[in-house]
Amino acid sequence: MKHIILLIFIILGAISCKEKSIVLEEDVFVKENYAKQEVAIKMRDGVKLHTTIYTPKDTSKVYPILMQRTPYSSKPYGEGKFKKNIGPNIHLMKEGNIIVYQDVRGRWLSEGSYENMRAYISNKKTDKDIDESSDTYDTIEWLINNVAHNNGKVGIWGISYPGYYSTYATVDAHPALKAASPQACIGDFFFDDFHHNGAYLLSYFRATSLFGTKRPNGDQPIDTAWYSLPKLPSEDQYQFFLDAGPLKNLDSFFQYEIEGNTSVENDSLVDDFFWNELKEHPNYDALWRSKGLIQHLKNVKPSVATMVVGGWFDAEDLYGPLETYKNIEKYNKENYNTLVFGPWDHGAWARRKGKNIVGNYYFGDSISEFFQEKIETKFFNHFLKGKGDHNSGLPEAYVFDSGLKKWKTYDSWPPKEVVKKEFFLSDEQILSEQQGVEKGIKFISDVKKPVPYSEDIKSVFTPRKYMTDDQRFAARRSDVLVYETEIMEQDVTLAGDILAKLKVATTGTAADWIVKIIDVHPADEPTHEHMQEHLKMSNYHMMVRSEVLRGRFRNSFVNPEPFIPNKKTEVNIKLQDVFHTIKKGHKLQVQVQSTWFPLIDLNPQTYVDNIFKGEESDFKTQTHTVFTDSSIEFLVLKP
After folding, report:
1. Which positions ≥6 away from 290 have C-beta within 8 Å?
2. Measured on CA atoms in the order 452, 458, 459, 464, is the torsion positive or negative?
3. Within 10 A of 497 (CB to CB), how many other CB atoms are there?
């Protein structure tokens, strides 16, 4: 018996040592197989951008260049200091590529002035005109002429803000740029991240200083963080923002002292410039329109193959990748352009974590690993090392059905096989394919008791798990209207965008409108081990998609207008695409509400020109009405 126990310990010890050696091998792989150099590449206007280059030590062959441009730092800086992982994924790192990271203009060790989503200048630039496209062009020109053993082909990738720079690179692209993968890419800050259809996302409040605090030394490089995230005095984010009142009461979180001035007098303080932009530009004016990149995608070069990647449950950047793909497709029909969407939250496809879970919802195992090996690596190798033609072996759309929990492929997105199907918000909480007698369903929207976006709200940097959260807590509130089908007798697959065509009225002059699409699971749905302890999958109300429209923008994001009290009014809300099957035995549910706190800021429900400057007295409880000729229009796959 002792010998058996000893043998078990020996085996366990061997396994432990093996695991440690694997971890150790992974930790030192880059340092052992790559040489690193840091250079300052001069742009056309003389500004130098800090660039880190990892080159394979095996110099017996040539390699393509894979680059990422980032505002988040290309650390670690300094000779002998290496990243533990480089490139888009472990496969591209291990098989050998020249990997480049660059601090964008005005960030970290790069010179120059940073501009949050720098406006695009047309290709009629002068020799000194710069934007992110020209900076990328100049960087690529230097790299292919100065980095040894490159094959003259360049790819670019990035997630979130680096994804935005990846999209930007395709516009007026350098001829050597052959492949770009914008992933969770920002497209327009009035619809991504900090706004949704004109509503300010209060949940991103703490992220503001990340983009708006000026470097203390102006245009000069700095290798340490110069900004700090606001620290809220309470972990209860709901109560904190409710007690704080109007948005203008939050100004003090974004004021800092001028360098060298130790005075605490108010006139020595300057405001965070991004917070000021948010405050002073509440509408989709020239400032926001100039920063948007979506409208410039007609200038994507046909020589660049694109693979746009996103997550169906990305709380941060869902609009951006979908609109990037659709607009490249719209304006550049001859280009190679493919879409990959999986059951991920923000950037989760870049992680290697085995089980794929968003919030409480489990989608399967090794989904991210499959993407990295079978999709992402295949894309870059084809265009940078292989034939580089349109026959990449990848489909036009590689999409994950989040209801059936399986990958599907299509030669277009949305699939050609979809039809429009309309459901009406009928009386008695029924979601019906038949329009009934017109009737108004009323509810009170109390500004002192707004509907929370989750039953689990904490002080977070940005929320994520709520995208698949159980919505039973909301369905049982009197200020949330619920509409539900009978139990499905067959699978119904939603594939594409969703249009909510609301007919509403309010006793006030302003209101927000929120629509949520819910998959109601059956009572016998088994519970998986990864859920929060207090929840069960029995009758789980899984949020599939949700969106808000600030009612003042119902006719124009540029020119807002108040509601006329008690007048029936059309409010159309485009919800972003889904690919989700409501399975046989489940029910399709729609929830409609007017507050979603503190995901979005509180609407005063009294029209004011600028909610960022609204007074406490502007906030009033109102009664809203949703009429039964309101409907939700889905794109549904033909059976």
Report:
1. 119
2. negative
3. 17
DSSP 593-622: ES--BTTSPPP-SS--S-GGG--GGG---E
Q: Where are the alpha helices (DSSP H) in 89-130?
A: 90-95
The pair of three-digit structure tokens given for residue 544, joined into one six-digit string: 């599939």
> Which distant-in-sequence residues (6+ apart) come within 8 Å of 369 by Cβ?
352, 354
Q: How far apart are CA 573 and CA 198, in angstroms?
A: 12
524: nearest Cα among 512, 506, 536: 536
List alpha helices for 476-554, DSSP H.
none
What is the distance between the alpha carbons of residues 532 and 525, in angstroms, rounded to a whole number? 16
CA distance 144 to 232: 47
Rounded Cα distance between 86 and 360, Å, is: 30
Distances (CA, A) of 37 to 176, 224, 319, 434, 538: 22, 20, 37, 66, 56
User: Beta strand 63-70 with 98-103: parallel, antiparallel or unpaired?
Assistant: parallel
Q: For 117, which DSSP code? A: T
Distances (CA, A) of 44 to 58, 133, 423, 617: 33, 12, 56, 53
Spell out the residues 6+ positions from residue 600 whose beta carbon is closer than 8 angstroms to its own. 196, 199, 200, 201, 202, 203, 512, 548
- Local confidence band at 23 (pLDDT 50, 70, 90 cut-offs): very low
Side chain identity, residue 505: A
Query: What DSSP string describes 392-440?
Result: -S--SEEEEETTTTEEEEESSSS-TTEEEEEEEE-STTBEESS--S--E
C-beta atoms surrounding 119 within 10 Å: 15
Q: Give, in degrees to the nearest 5, the angle at Cα 318 between 314 and 323.
A: 160
Query: What pTM was estimated for this model as a whole?
Result: 0.94
For residues 544-579, b (16+ Cβ closer than 10 Å) or e, as one string? bbbbbbbbbbbeebeebeebeeeeebebebebbbbb
Q: Helix, strand or coil for residue 325?
A: helix
Q: pLDDT at position 6, please?
A: 41
Q: How far apart are CA 519 and CA 534, in angstroms?
A: 20
SS3 annotation, 178-243: EEEEEECCCCCCCCCCCEECCEECHHHHHHHHHHHCCCCCCCCCCCCCCCCCCCCCCCCHHHHHHH
Q: Is 264 left (phi over 0), alpha (psi -120 to 50) or beta?
A: alpha
Q: Which residues contact 476 (CB under 8 A, 6 or more apart)?
A: none
Instruction: Compute the mean pLDDT over every residue in the chain, rounded to the nearest whole number.
Output: 92
SS (HEC) of 275-308? HHHHHHCCCCCHHHHHHCCHHHHHHECCCCEEEE
Residue pair 100/65 in contact (Cβ under 8 Å)? The answer is yes
For 225-281, write each residue's pLDDT tens digit.
998 888 889 889 999 999 999 999 999 998 876 454 333 344 445 578 899 999 999
